[in-house]
Amino acid sequence: MSAGGTATAPAQGDAAAVVVAVRWQGAPATAVPDTVAGGAAAVAATTRQPARAPMGPPQNAGYMTAAYTAAAVIYLGYVAVLLRRLALARRGG
Amino acid sequence: MTSPVASVPTAGARPAAPALPRFDWLLAVALLACAGAMARAVWFTPMDAMQGAAQKIYYIHVPAAIMGLYLSCGLLAIASAVYLWIKDDRLDRVAESAAEVGLVFMSVVLVTGPIWGKPIWGAWWTWDARLTSTLFLWFVVLGYLVLRGAVENPETRARLSAVLGVLALLLVPFIHLTVYLFRTLHPEPIVLKPSRPSLPPEMLQTFGLSSLAFLVLFVALLRARYRWATTRDARAALEAA
User: Global pTM?
Assistant: First the structure.
């Protein structure tokens, strides 16, 4: 059986069709044996390990890091400009 | 124009400009406080379940908006208006300093906002009422500083810039109300509103500490900028004498 499967729904009790459906849902082809007898085990393994990632907050810490870095650069840059002006003024420049 | 600096002697030996301290303790405390507030926001504040870590941009974006728009523009307008009335040079320097420091805070708002908007809205920028009016205010304050640099006569410079400083404040309530008056991607205020803040206590505490830290930074920067302006004007008066 080739990897990828089809979009047709499996018939009730048809192990081969179940294997196709499991692959169609995203299981890796190497994890699914190409035998009808192995189909049940593959279905059980797939049930224990859901194909979708667990729910949780979005992974976007990079945007937070970028924003904090940009803010720090702006503030510290202005502080540096101000301190330089004050140093020049102190020296009478 | 009245006397440029009250501390400039008028007779005797060559007068000296006001002395500047070698170490600005308030600025050092402010920077430490801001670093602490940012560390607390990043590592010791719960993550938002819907927005993830990007929501923590809130703790630098909103305090910068409060200082840059409300506080600095309010100070700029009040100092400008009172200057037009009593013509005291110190008020002109306060207005000038508030505009420059406010521009820095507004720049932080305009930079961190799009970085927050990209993962949440799916766009860096939209030309909606809140964002566009904030950008317009940034250009008005920038124009205020450019105007100051373009006019050589001190009295004319102070008078013209004071008028622009008063006008800049008119934009601030409009910007605050844009989220109520127009359809916009920008959310409505969750702290600066008549009802109770819509934040859990842990997030509200972090927001309060962050706002306090950036308030101290605003005051420290304003003080340092004012001192520099005082020294600059004193030297100009000495050279003119």
Answer: 0.79
